[in-house]
Amino acid sequence: MSEKSFSFDDLDVFTTGALLQPLKVVNRDGSEVWFWVVSEFIDDTFRDGQVYNPPETAKSKKELLKALHSSTSSSAISIIS
After folding, report:
1. pTM to 2 decimals?
2. What phi and psi values does residue 28 have, to the nearest 5 degrees?
């Protein structure tokens, strides 16, 4: 079994509408890179001027983006109507 190639730090910081958490990713060559990632949304999120509140986590990319695709298709329908 391979080692995890990522790990979260315990630190959280607040930015407008979200909590951020440092994430360490270990590249294939063993080098480390750190990223800020959203760990929790606090306020509404918007896409193309419409409220879009995505889930913070999901078991798959498809599940994570499900709300994005459904909000896009529903806004397209309302524009056409």
Report:
1. 0.56
2. -60, -30
Q: Is there a single domain that holds both residue 1 and residue 31?
A: yes
57-67 pLDDT tens trace: 888 888 887 76
Give the burial class of 60: count Cβ atoms within 10 A of its Cβ; 0-12 exposed, 13-18 middle, 19 or more buried. Answer: exposed
What domain range is 26 assigned to?
Answer: 1-43
Long-range contacts of 14-20 (CB under 8 A, 24+ apart): 14/42, 16/43, 17/41, 17/42, 17/43, 17/44, 17/45, 18/42, 18/43
Give yes or no: residues 70 and 38 share one domain: no
